[in-house]
Write a structure and sequence with these properties.
two-stranded parallel sheet; 2 domains; HAT_MetX-like; mainly alpha; 2 strands
Length: about 140
């Protein structure tokens, strides 16, 4: 399907989940639980189908991304697109995966997952090693 696959949203995913639940005969969830993007789906369930969710647990999620988060996501997408193995989205037809781009995108994403304290511990100005390459 490649780049011809349509753009989908959290609302689309939840609508498809609701259709699957209908097909399976599930009228109401005892609980919907999700973290991060899964948490966004839980919030969408409670807004779109409040009568179908008895309890909701949202972990580390937001109802709306900030402009900075959207920018980080765009950088991550560009990292993937710039990988020569991406082939304009037709990488499966070339029997490959844009691993370098995915690795960079994951690194960018990881920055957005960490708290300020965690970032300080991992990347703070305190020298963490005697490695001369780290002295700049």
């Amino acid at each position: 399907m490649g780049p011809e696959f349509p753009m989908v949203t959290v609302s689309d995913w939840v609508a498809s989940q609701a259709r699957l639940a209908d097909h399976l005969g599930i009228e109401r969830w005892a609980a919907a639980v999700g973290g991060s993007l899964g948490g966004m789906q839980v919030m969408q369930w409670t807004m779109t189908y409040p009568e179908r969710v008895a309890n909701a647990v949202v972990i580390a999620a937001t109802p709306r991304l900030s402009a900075q988060n959207i920018a980080f996501n765009e950088v991550a997408r560009q990292a993937i697109r710039s990988d020569p193995e991406f082939f304009d989205g037709w990488y499966a037809e070339h029997d490959t995966v844009p691993k370098r781009g995915l690795k960079l995108a994951r690194m960018v994403g990881h920055i957005t997952y960490l708290s300020e304290d965690a970032m300080g511990s991992k990347f703070g100005r305190d020298l963490r090693s005697d490695d001369p390459q780290l002295r700049f």
